[in-house]
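How it folds:
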Amino acid sequence: MSEIMRVLRAARALVGLSQAELAELSGVSRQIVVRIENGENNVLVEAIEKVRRALEQQGVTFTDATPQHGPGVALGRSTEGDDPRAAKGLGQS
């Protein structure tokens, strides 16, 4: 489970979201995002899935582990603009 949690943290950084922004997009509290990223064991799988879905909506693709490497993340090309947060109304002044 902790590998999944590390990958979610990397995905958040990849798309440039703060923990608060990811929490808003996911429908969970910022504290839940913190607990996920810290690898705490008392996080519901449902919360982890909400975070994962929110990241996928931002263009993140999750890759499975193989014998050569662990799980990973990649960012797909955006068709809606340069800032993936703009599509959700985040990160705008």
User: Anything to note?
Assistant: Helices lie at 2-15, 19-26, 30-37, 45-57. Residues 2-15 form the longest helix (14 residues). The chain is about 45% helix and 10% strand.
